[in-house]
Amino acid sequence: MTFNGEMNATAQGFTLNGTIENQGQGDVPTFRNVTVYLYTTNGSLVASKSVGELSRRTGVSMDTTAIPEFVVFDSPDFWDTESIQVDYYEYVNESERDYTIRSVGSREQLPPDSDHN
């Protein structure tokens, strides 16, 4: 699972526009209850948005006045798959307003320390 699109933090807030894509080969599973979570450094939830089901790709768009430290894409179904790589994004450069991509293979590796349910 990966995100393709724009993720921007500005003085006015945060915007996310793009698609979430399931990059598996051949027949890919459909993931239900896919949600985007925006978190502060201390783990407080800034905002969340359900994007529903993800088969190959689905669009997502959201904005908030707060700038999240972490942008996490999650679904309970992700972790029922034997070998999955899920991307999340971490805010790393305040002057450039950049997010860097990180990949995890288990829900426990997602930031912050939260259940994402």
TrEMBL record:
This is CARDB domain-containing protein.
